[in-house]
Design a protein that fits this description.
The chain is built from 3 helices and 7 strands, in the order αββββαββαβ. With 123 residues, the protein is α+β, with helices and mostly antiparallel strands. It has one domain: Roll (Pnp Oxidase, Chain A).
Length: 123
């Protein structure tokens, strides 16, 4: 599901948007492509420092939408491409993956884990 083109985008710096929602209230937070850590075939780990509203939303509704892109990767017709990912999210505050992420990103207080269900190239 994670395509070669998406991996190429993840290797370039760019903004990532994460949308969560609960009780008819959508919330958006941002992070960087370079903070995404792919584990397994369809799981992405993201260091979380704040993201408190996102965490509250995912307790009630684990579904999230994530967008990311890079102007440095060839798209369908020209330079620049983006992706929409959908999946389910949860926050980790302990365990081996938390420890691995804490070693990479000392600022984190939790780790956002996203199990990717779908990937769509948007550009």
């Amino acid at each position: 599901m994670i395509t070669k083109k998406l991996l190429e985008v993840m290797e370039k710096e760019g903004v990532v948007s994460i949308v969560s929602w609960a009780e008819n209230d959508a919330h958006v937070v941002n992070t960087w492509n370079s903070y995404l850590v792919l584990t397994g075939e369809n799981r992405i780990l993201i260091p979380a420092y704040a993201m408190r509203k996102t965490e509250k939303n995912t307790i009630k509704n684990p579904r999230v939408k994530v967008t990311l892109g890079s102007k440095e990767v060839m798209g369908h017709r020209s330079m620049g491409t983006g992706f929409l990912l959908t999946g389910e999210a949860k926050f980790l505050s302990e365990g081996s993956e938390f420890d691995m992420m804490k070693a990479k990103f000392s600022f984190l207080t939790r780790v956002l884990e996203i199990s990717v269900a779908s990937v769509t190239q948007t550009l």
